[in-house]
Amino acid sequence: QVQLVESGGGSVQAGGSLRLSCVASGHTAGTYGMGWFRQAPGKEREGVATIGSDGKTSYAESVKGRFTISKDNAKSTLYLLMESLKPEDTAMYFCVADRASPYCGTWRPCPATLYTYWGQGTQVTVSS
Q1: Cα(first)–Cα(last) distance of the chain, in Å?
Q2: Cα(86)–Cα(108) distance, rounded to whole angstroms?
Q3: I want to staple 67 with a disulfide (CB 3.0 to 4.6 A). Which of 30, 38, 63, 104 is the partner?
Q4: E-assigned strands of the chain?
Q5: Residue 50's pLDDT band (cuts 50, 70, 90)
Q6: What are phi and psi of 8, to 5 degrees?
Q7: How far apart (Å, rounded) are the C-alpha atoms in residues 65 and 57?
Q8: DSSP 111
Q9: Helix (H, G, I), strand (E, B) or coil at 93
């Protein structure tokens, strides 16, 4: 059974930075595709950034140049460095994983339905 536990969320002012972490158990980060999705109140869940088992990354257009996804396979940990945060980045952020390691394009994360495993989420709030 794969379990994902996120941490690192919090409240920051616009222009600030946060780093989210996701520790995976039950599999190694090197063999699964992983990523981050987010959902704001009243909005649909959207892909933020994903990274495949081969290291190939995909980002949403809205976070291009501001967010960086990475992973430490030895620690089975996924990261999301978020810089130049904006109020519109406010959302619950979820860590995801799937054995299939889906890829849909450099600037288009795959749909949420392609990821089997989800964490409980960590809240990010950006104030103006």
Answers
A1: 40
A2: 20
A3: 63
A4: 3-7, 10-13, 18-25, 33-39, 46-51, 57-59, 67-72, 77-82, 91-98, 117-118, 122-127
A5: very high
A6: 105, -5
A7: 13
A8: P
A9: strand
